[in-house]
Every structure is written in C-alpha cells, then in structure tokens.
Amino acid sequence: MRTNVVRMSTASVPADPSGRIPASPAPSASSASSAGTVTDRLVEANNRYAADFADPGMDARPVLKVAVVACMDARLDLHDALGLELGDCHTIRNAGGVVTDDVIRSLTISQRALGTRSVVLIHHTGCGLLSLTEDFRHELEDEVGQRPAWAVEAFRDVDQDVRQSMQRVRTSPFLLHRDDVRGFVFDVKTGLLREIDPA
Ligand SMILES: [Zn+2]
C-alpha cells in the first residue's frame, strides 16, 4: 500500500471527517468564530487568552529544571498529564518523540544556556510511527525526486525505541547532565505512564 506523503497543507478543509472545523461556514449564532481557517480560529482564541493574561514575571529558565521530550501526538497533553504549570519545563516534541540531532541541539541549549538538569522521554501507545517504515522515505523520494536528509525513525517496538532514545541522550558528548534520564510510554487509553527500564 502506498502511503500518502504529500498531504501537508494548511488549507481550511478539515482532515477530520467529524467536521469539528467546518470547511464552509454554517450559519449559526456564533458564525463569526466558525468562519475562516483553522489558523483564524486559533488567532481568535489567542485574543481571548491574552485578554486575561497577566505577565507571570518569569525568566526563561524552567522552574523544575527539566526538559521533556515527547511525541507530537494530539492525544498527549503534557502539562495536564504530568501536572506541569507554566514555566516549569522545556517541552521538545517531534514525530515519535525520537531523540534526533535536532533534539540534542535543543537539549544542549536547554542544559547549557537555561539550566535544566533532568530529561524525561515520553513515547506512547498507538504512535503513528509504529505503522510506518523507511519505505515512507523511499516513496517520498520516488514522488518528489529528492531524498530527504532525515531518517523516518519509524519503530516496531515502542519500549525498545524509548531505550534507544535514552541511550542517545546518555551518550551525547554535548550534554552536561546525563545521569537523570528516564523514559516512559504514555497509554493514550488510560492516561498512565509506564516507565521503561533502560537495561
Ligand atoms: Zn506518536
């Protein structure tokens, strides 16, 4: 089965068939906020947010001195799931929560410039990367005529991938603090974290 690899668009047509975000504005009492693109809707929400926002008076250093690396999955609300407040931590997210060179870049800045000392890695059940393979990359190359410089970082065993991610952090020469690195799998059905033994 060929994977659709070019469905990357910022158009207003919803990917979600539930129609939570109407493609064409339906007449309603709140039609002003249901019209327009998804981004328009986010900007409106920001205006309401800013109306009640008070300067928290914080600097950029995370209060808990922790950086959380997690998958970008929409079902994972890091702040709620971990009891985090504004200003507590750095959150570094990508597809899979994989420790790539760019994650190491962010962690290096997090530790060396902004004082974090602990690293928490979070993968999750039902991750999209479990159903992909490196074929994704080859199909992409066939389609666009250019090979991406990055690896897909697909995985079959989420526990093993957490271990690999922990290992990448622990062996990075750029990081100052590599002793407090713990990895977890978040269950999207129960909301619980399960810790992965690094061994
Ligand atoms: Zn995921």
Automatic annotation (TrEMBL):
Segments of skewed composition (Low complexity): 22-35
Segments for region (Disordered): 1-37
Superkingdom of origin organism: Bacteria
Keyword Metal-binding: yes
InterPro entries attached to this UniProt entry: Carbonic_anhydrase, Carbonic_anhydrase_sf
Pfam families referenced in this protein's UniProt entry, alphabetically: Pro_CA
Family to which the UniProt record says this protein belongs: Belongs to the beta-class carbonic anhydrase family.
The name this protein goes by in its record: carbonic anhydrase
